[in-house]
Amino acid sequence: MTQRLALGIDIGGTNTSYGIVDRRGSIVAKGTMPTTGHPTVEGYVTALAATLAPLLEEAGPENIAGAGIGAPNGNFFTGEILFAPNLPWKGVAIPLVKLLTTALNMPCKLTNDANAAAVGEMTYGTARGMNDFVMVTLGTGVGSGFVANGQIIYGHDGFAGELGHMIAVRDGRMCGCGRRGCLEAYCSATGIVITAKEWLKQRDTQSVLRDNADTLTARRIQEAAVAGDTLALELFAYTGKILGQTLADVVVITSPEAIVFFGGLAHAGELLFAHVRKHMEDNMLNIFKNKVALKTSSLPDADAAILGASALVW
Amino acid sequence: MTQRLALGIDIGGTNTSYGIVDRRGSIVAKGTMPTTGHPTVEGYVTALAATLAPLLEEAGPENIAGAGIGAPNGNFFTGEILFAPNLPWKGVAIPLVKLLTTALNMPCKLTNDANAAAVGEMTYGTARGMNDFVMVTLGTGVGSGFVANGQIIYGHDGFAGELGHMIAVRDGRMCGCGRRGCLEAYCSATGIVITAKEWLKQRDTQSVLRDNADTLTARRIQEAAVAGDTLALELFAYTGKILGQTLADVVVITSPEAIVFFGGLAHAGELLFAHVRKHMEDNMLNIFKNKVALKTSSLPDADAAILGASALVW
């Protein structure tokens, strides 16, 4: 095969990013378009194909091996997006691969965004050369991709790797999935904000987070913690404890060499990960102690999703 | 390769079982010897080789492709047994594969007993044809073997699959591993007996389990439950609830087609699994509901370990 380029498409709830990537992970062309504004997925696919046409023409269609797509709830086996609450099109199963294969006239592969991130880290990022690691995305939700024996664990139905929905606190806080106590309800960018709002109500502690508390974000909590705000620091300690405890339970299953973090909340760095590490190790089964590296993604934020999606092609 | 036989060796704390198995899973010869009575592992290996010699001679050494060994804490990558508290030889790392390869003069492969059981089920048992399943052994402890993409998940260090040491009850009962609340402390044959003894002390309920309570076993609890003893039935309900809840958290990670149970406590059948199923499904993330089969091993108890170990060779 002489084709040296791949198209990577990352479909988010608001925007779709795309890029043409060579085998070494350099993005030769890229752009974004809104995901919203198309009442049907067919309309969206037509608009996407039209937007991509000049890029593909310039790269030379004969040089492009195929397209990889990362999307929430994207299923690798069926090529469908299933029950994705954050995407604008309704329907139980959206046949994205089928539609895009026709519209772009090239082979397409789909997986969820966290699995795409894992493939990206394994191909171009901090997990290069690792056969066993876990990718954890700490964004609006908590996503994950598990790699064992050098392969993504898709599970028998393509839906494996839902770390965000492990129960971190039995009978705990309501999660968007309808159950209680999921990791995602505590350790996502959304989760830490919920904890902050609860604490601000329950406590009298002085905190800069009280200003405009209604529009609080994980980013603002991070800035407050950097500035030494006690409540903000404690929020990272609490969030890190829950994440660390839960990761100790994950390690016993797949024994990864590393856990690689990506996403908004991961930018907090040691503010968060010092606590994650402490509580993971405190709760770790002896044979795994001090063996599992905690790392953050080495891919540039803006490109990681495109790189990950494009790497599905190889 | 014309070799059609494999040697399977299962090393337990008390006895070592061995057998010569053909590719279709028929045991053509087998036997047992005590694991104990040899102060050093070298002495044990010499005795084992001497015991095996006539069997190997009769089968024809040229027909035997190699030996597979299942042992507690056996490591597939290093060929060593590490920190196995139930085996008679001390030492951090026992180089079993090295010793046996020399003594038997054939290639040897080692893994832990639960992984060997998973390989056995995949090769000859109820998991034939499955690429993604979980093997759970409910014996003195709780062991497990995870299969994804048709391969055992060994993890980067060979120690993956320690389901028994997932925390089932945060800050719960002490486990032999020195931590609190492990699944094994509740849902093993040992765990259900501990629960029974606790309840007998705390409650006044009439129960046949009060007779000779000091020598209570999981088997007696099962017999009492079959006979309708209320406390015994409730013990299975409680044990099944904890196991079911925890399995719901396992499913989100590897999304298995089935969970296959083996070992003493698995003989309780629906007494236990009706509750496991109910609580697993009650706690299951929507996309996995009613998809994961709970099965029990189809291999005869006495032979399963030998079959599993021998299947490592192929």
Structure summary:
Chain A is built from nine helices and twelve strands. Chain A has 314 residues and is of the alpha/beta class. Chain A is globular, with a radius of gyration of 20 Å.
Subunit organisation of the chains: homodimer
Low-confidence parts of chain A, pLDDT < 50 over ≥5 residues?
Answer: none
Topology-level CATH name of the largest domain in chain A: Nucleotidyltransferase, domain 5
Superfamily (CATH H level) name of the largest domain in chain A = ATPase, nucleotide binding domain
Structural class of chain A: alpha/beta
How far the N terminus sits from the C terminus of chain A, by CA atoms, comes to 11 Å
Give the largest interface pair and sizes: A-B, 44 and 44 residues
Strand content of chain A: 15-25%
How many helices of chain A?
Answer: 9
Q: How are strands sequenced across the largest beta sheet of chain A? A: 3-2-1-4-7
Work out the helicity level of chain A: 25-40%
